[in-house]
Amino acid sequence: MTTTTPDTQGTTAVSPRLGTEAPSSKLALLLKRPTKSTGVWSWFTSVDHKKIGILYVALSLVFFVLGGVEALLIRLQLFSPDGSVLTAVQYNQMFTMHGTTMVFLVGMPIIAGFGNYLLPLMIGARDVAFPRLNMFGFWVFLFGGVFMYSSFFLGGAPDGGWFGYTPLTSSPYSSGILPGNGTNFWAIGLLMLAVGSTTSALNFIVTVVNMRAPGMKLMRMPVFVWMMTIVSFLTVFALPVFSAALIMVFFDRNFGTTFFFSATGGDPLLYQHMFWIFGHPEVYILILPGMGIVSEILPTFSRKPLFGYSVIVFSGIAIGFVGWGVWAHHMFATGLGPVAISAFGVSTMLVGVPTGVKIFNWLGTLWGGSLKFTTPMLYATGFIAMFTVGGLSGVTHAVVPADTQQTDTYYIIAHFHYVLFGGLVFALIGGTYYWFPKVFGRMMNERWGKIGFWLTLIGFNLTFAPMHLAGLAGQARRTWQYQEELGVTFLNQLSTVGSFLIAFAVLLFVINIVVSKYKGEIAGADPWDGRTLEWSIPSPTPEYNFLETPNVHGVDDFWHTKYQEDADGRPILREGVDLKKEPQRVTTQEAIEKHGVHLPSPSFWPFVVPFGMFVGAYGLIFENWYTCAIGVVITASGLIGWAIEPDTEPGAHGDDHQLEVHA
Fold it and tell me: What is the DSSP letter of 582?
């Protein structure tokens, strides 16, 4: 499809989308795609999956710091009995926003960031299936997070817990200057985030199904790609249930409905069912990508293939299925009846089986390998150890009487932090050290990385191991004070000291990222002697990803282009392979002109649509229908502009394929 340009006296141009006469000059200028390839504006309008991935991770780290500050305030409050650092209302706000931040503004978005950057590279694609929808997801994430945090300044933050149980989230129990303001911010903000997460998940699914390189069959995909695909399906099916519950909460609070009011025929337990039908698959949405990251790191630094590749893949699928059948173990104390609690106790035990299989496969990968304990390898092995502890404490929830006693104590907090922090956060930090050279072309400082690992490991165990004992001693969670007679003061003091040790380790990690980006050792294309396709291209990754679409012949295809096995199964370098030789790098323009590379063009409409949602949300919160209408108009205009925005021509990119406009 071509763009016809008349002589300079003409007044029309052919639209590359429709092949018909283009709109008027002013409208054409409005619809014209941005052309900046460098500077802030290029990041603002980019649809490049790599830039979007970096933006996701960077913003997630900002929220990680905010959530960490909230956690430190909580630990200061609990350092001593009858603490007075925070009031009861402030404490409720802190633990509500800490949990909400870590799950919805750190865990899910940072996973999306890793997936955005790595998934197309690992399957040999040049971008995701829907580049503009990809950037839309990031802007929804940003506006949703800013919207929720603005509640601190607009009447009080949400204080009903990150889980939002009714009736705690109904108006009579709300706090703040404006009645119910904080929880309304929480519900609408999470709805915005749910939209972004769902669109990102759909994008990943379509990308994996349709854009794999030739020869990359499903059972040749890297494990990280498999785990991201499973997570995407879980997200698509789980988030709508929670979104429906959030809408019902908002309507109960603001429009007089009674979905969860028992006095008028509603059922508060209905909310708990809807939340945990989402909430327990959510645990696997957060942890499966960490398992995928570890499954990429271990083979690289063991210098041997992942033990039981297909078993790990199918156990991930099994976790995705079985994970839907365990939600009610969060509700054993609600009186579900013996049949229900027996069934969910059994399913809770069963979900540990595929998880245990993965752990043994990872240990099998390490066994007999030529181990190199780099910083990524340390975090990967730390993941295995800490996640195993969390898994063992989780299996105790299958014992119904024990779980009933534990459910509202600090034992549960210890358990899920061992799973999510000891699992996901360890894996993400290890993954950052592992793929940092691919993203920025420089190595992170190994000495700082190893110091940070040991500080994190010690601080983590010092923080959360005592919580097991405090919970078993009877310390209730979600309470802002405890009595000295309970005998848990020393345990809480250990936890507080450990939390500040974690904070110092995180600070060191962030400093390492910033310093290494500018002053780190220059990395080659394949500094770790990697196994998957992303290591076959230059570092930092070129805008076009691959000059030529790779052909895949097996699992770890790139590794096998470098090595063959001897009679004893040990890898030996193939004849003629030079590991120091860098892959060809050309400019983006050369890739377009000489190699026929086609790249998606920038667009500002993915910003306009969520900005309209952001404006309209404030109108909805404060019942200012004029503001709400303005938000609807902006959103609708953005969707229309998005729909009629001109496409680029196949093979074209940048300034050369904008809609022609002539005087």
Answer: P
Q: Say which residue the tokens 């069912």 belong to.
A: 273
Lowest mean pLDDT among 270-279, 536-545, 639-648: 639-648
Residue 645 gets the label, from left (phi > 0), alpha (psi -120 to 50) or beta, of: beta
Res. 653 pLDDT band, cuts 50 70 90: very low
652 token code pair:
């074209």
pLDDT reading at 24 higher than 90? no
Per-residue confidence at 27, pLDDT binned at 50, 70, 90? low
CA atoms within 13 A on the CB side of 43: 8
What count of other Cβ atoms lies within 10 Å of the Cβ of residue 193?
Answer: 26
E strands along 61-202, which residues? none
Other Cβ atoms less than 10 A from the Cβ of 21: the count is: 11
14 pLDDT tier (thresholds 50, 70, 90): very low
- The phi, psi pair for 127, rounded to 5°, reads -170, -175
What φ, ψ does residue 544 adopt, rounded to 5°?
A: -90, 0
Tell me the torsion sign for CA atoms 109, 111, 114, 116: negative
Rounded average pLDDT over 603-620 = 95
Map tokens 């190199």 to a residue.
372
On whether the CB atoms of residues 120 and 146 are closer than 8 A, the answer is: no
